[in-house]
Design goal:
Elements lengths: L21 H6 L32 H9 L4 E4 L8 E4 L10 H6 L3 H18 L3 E5 L9 E2 L1 E9 L5 E10 L20 H14 L2 E8 L6 E9 L10 E7 L7 H15 L3 E2 L6 E5 L5 E7 L2 E6 L2 H12 L3 E7 L2 E2 L2 E5 L5 E4 L1 H10 L28 H20 L5 H8 L7 H17 L2 E5 L10 E7 L15 E8 L2 E9 L7 H25 L8 E5 L2 H8 L16 H8 L2 E5 L16 H10 L2 E4 L8 E2 L31
Parallel strand pairs: 4-8, 19-22, 22-23
Antiparallel strand pairs: 1-2, 3-9, 5-6, 7-13, 7-14, 8-9, 10-11, 11-12, 12-13, 15-16, 16-17, 17-18, 18-24, 19-20, 20-21, 24-25
Helix pairs in contact: 9-10, 9-11, 12-13, 12-14
Pfam families: RVT_2
Organism: Microbotryum saponariae
Protein name: BZ3500_MvSof-1268-A1-R1_Chr10-2g02788 protein
Length: 660
């Protein structure tokens, strides 16, 4: 087969971004000074000041320019100084969004080479497409457009490791039933990944990571799809690309890839669990379990034997290009650290700092001890906010939700509560969001620690709570609906948590707590089934603590129906699970109810105590990797080293929480 010519990029004139006048550029430094939080909504700045104290005479274009080109600061460890050294890092600017932006930037040559390599690799190495005449396209067929997506790749420390140009199809023009059928593709749940890491810490297992290169390009398409040629290449205008394989951007691409990698892992002897289809397990000849968690093209391999990890990677290398990343350090924006004692610490320090920098919170910003002021009550007022506030509010809530779902259960209630007003936020709602950001500024080093212990894990322990009319911030003022929450433990730290508004109005505390028990019971059953499929034997029933004896009595005794006749059938889930023996319930005092942190805003002392009970530790910036602390009124003398207060522990026969 003759060698095909390597396509070259058409030369483009180089454009420079227009510079602001000198006096404008000098003024931008004032926008990053310490911001004093207004004492009330009446004293708060208007919506133009949500990203800083911009003057009203500045145009929106100038404000956007300052937003994209601000300087961010991070705190660094300095063992030779009594204070943290403040060093500037490179501006956190967004990657190019269009071809013109990429070719007009000062990294034009880098982006051009990345685009050329991507195109030629897809055509010659992966045989993703063939170049054909437009006249060969059947009448009525859809020709999807193409574009490049630009990405600066960084490691866990934020250092640039490369530049990626990805050729994608704009699948928004695909027609259902003609260009694609099924599109759903599963990924591993965060709670499943945390459960696996908790097992790895408790049992001293190896945790390694690998990444599949150009994952979506390996699956064959089951539909005929044509795509326009990408911009910037010297291809005739009457040519189109006929896609032979899946490509990023197609609606069915994720599903095709998942089926492909699933078949590969099954060929290596692994079986997907029925509880989470992206968690795989295998038992070897010595009855030792091995695990794999799959999140699109990222693989987290957990095994007691490094030889098994090598076998898996070698098997995958026969089918894909695999990046060997070694011991897991960074996945899905979560940093993973193996401590000296074998414990595993999870944090989102880098992601949090990026979010803070995006909203102009630097190291001079005052921190807070709690994410939400106790007793805060907000309402939805139509027409209160503006489109600009709503845009920034949605960006902030989305970023905070990812943090709360990843490693920071301490902000789960505050974020869940403020997310209720995302449709029409006002100034007071934005002030509450900034309060969470200030709390994260003070606690960005916090880690979720899974202890290395000797006690065998046999199940999960959970705490369920609801707050009925006791605090205005826990009950939606507009609808009178209460908030419920739960947390479940493995290896001494939280692996699953939730803060959620109930689906209906509860007419009593018992009613609200009973609904919360059913909500928690579903997660308890899921985690118990997951442990069973991960070959943790024997698996004891999920044990849930509640601080409401009446709700526990209703779950245990079906005869008590006088005040529960209105409860729907599906809300009796916990009663059925208790009768089957899949869930056991116990009473715990309100002062020891850890799930209270998911139902309302708490004061600093009790909030810090519950944070410690969740397994959150603050990594001291100048001590060893295993040194942690948690201040703010936490009385460590009443708390155990594995993350749950001694008084909160279940009996030894029930608690799978790793002991000291």
């Amino acid at each position: 087969m003759p060698n095909r010519p390597r396509h070259r990029l058409l030369s483009r004139p180089r454009h420079r971004r227009p510079q602001l006048p000198c006096h404008r550029r000098l003024r931008c430094h004032r926008h990053f000074s310490t911001y004093r939080e207004p004492a009330s909504a009446e004293e708060s700045p208007d919506e133009l000041d949500i990203i800083g104290r911009h003057s009203r005479d500045e145009s929106p274009d100038e404000i956007d320019f300052l937003t994209q080109h601000h300087r961010a600061f991070i705190a660094t460890d300095d063992d030779n100084s009594d204070t943290e050294a403040i060093q500037p890092v490179k501006s956190i600017t967004s990657d190019p969004q269009t071809w013109r932006e990429a070719m007009s930037s000062d990294k034009r040559e880098v982006w051009a080479k990345a685009a050329t390599d991507e195109f030629n690799s897809m055509r010659d190495d992966f045989k993703v497409f063939t170049i054909e005449d437009r006249s060969t396209v059947p009448a009525g067929a859809t020709i999807v457009t193409s574009k490049f997506v630009w990405k600066t790749k960084r490691n866990a420390l934020g250092e640039v490791t490369g530049h990626k140009a990805r050729l994608v199809a704009q699948g928004n023009r695909q027609r259902d039933g003609i260009d694609f059928n099924e599109t759903f593709a599963p990924v591993a749940r965060f709670s499943s990944i945390r459960s696996l890491l908790a097992l790895a810490a408790a049992n001293g297992l190896h945790v390694h990571q690998a990444d599949i290169d150009k994952a979506y390009l390996h699956g064959d398409l089951d539909h005929d799809i044509w795509m326009t040629t990408p911009r910037g290449f010297d291809l005739p205008t009457d040519k189109v690309l006929r896609l032979r394989r899946s490509i990023y951007g197609l609606k069915q691409a994720g599903r095709i890839w998942n089926r492909h990698i699933d078949a590969s892992l099954r060929d290596l002897g692994y079986t997907a669990t029925g509880t989470d289809h992206c968690v795989y397990s295998r038992i070897d000849d010595r009855r030792r379990p091995h695990y794999i968690a799959l999140y699109v093209d990222d693989l987290l391999m957990i095994s007691p034997d490094l030889a098994e990890i090598e076998r898996v990677i070698s098997g995958l290398e026969q089918r894909y290009g695999v990046k060997r990343l070694g011991p897991a350090e960074y996945i899905l924006g979560i940093q993973i650290r193996r401590l000296e004692d074998g414990s595993i610490a999870l944090s989102q320090e880098r992601y949090i700092m990026d979010v803070l920098a995006r909203f102009h919170f630097d190291t001079t910003t005052r921190g807070t001890t709690v994410p939400m002021t106790p007793g805060l009550s907000l309402t939805a007022i139509p027409g209160q906010g503006t489109e600009r506030i709503r845009s920034w509010y949605l960006q902030a809530i989305g970023s905070l939700l990812y943090i709360s779902l990843g490693t920071r259960p301490d902000i789960a209630f505050a974020v869940s509560y403020l997310a209720r007003f995302a449709n029409n936020p006002g100034r007071r709602h934005w002030i509450a969001v900034k309060h969470i950001l200030r709390y994260l500024r003070a606690t960005y080093r916090d880690e979720l620690v899974y202890a290395c212990g000797e006690t065998r894990i046999t199940g999960v322990v959970g705490y369920s709570d609801a707050n009925w009319g006791a605090c205005r911030s826990s009950t939606c003022v507009d609808t009178s609906v209460s908030t419920m929450g739960y947390v479940f433990y493995i290896a001494g730290s939280a692996v699953s948590w939730s803060s959620k508004r109930q689906s209906r109005v509860a007419d009593s505390t018992t009613d609200a707590e009973y609904l919360a028990l059913s909500h928690a019971g579903k997660e308890g059953i899921y985690l118990s089934q997951l442990l069973e499929e991960l070959h943790v034997q024997p698996v004891a029933p999920a044990h849930i603590f509640t601080d409401n004896e009446a709700a526990a009595a209703v779950a245990h005794d079906p005869v008590r129906v006088s005040g529960t006749r209105h409860i729907r059938l599906r809300e009796h889930f916990v009663r059925d699970m208790v009768n089957r023996g899949d869930i056991s319930l116990s009473h715990v005092g309100t002062s020891n109810m850890v799930a209270d942190i998911f139902t309302k805003a708490l004061g600093p002392k009790i909030f810090s105590t519950h944070c410690y009970a969740l397994g959150l530790r603050t990594r001291h910036p100048r001590l060893g990797s295993a040194s942690h602390s948690r201040g703010g009124g936490c009385e460590e003398s009443t708390l155990s080293s594995t993350g749950a207060p001694r008084s909160l522990r279940a009996p030894a026969s029930l608690a799978p929480v790793v002991g000291t």
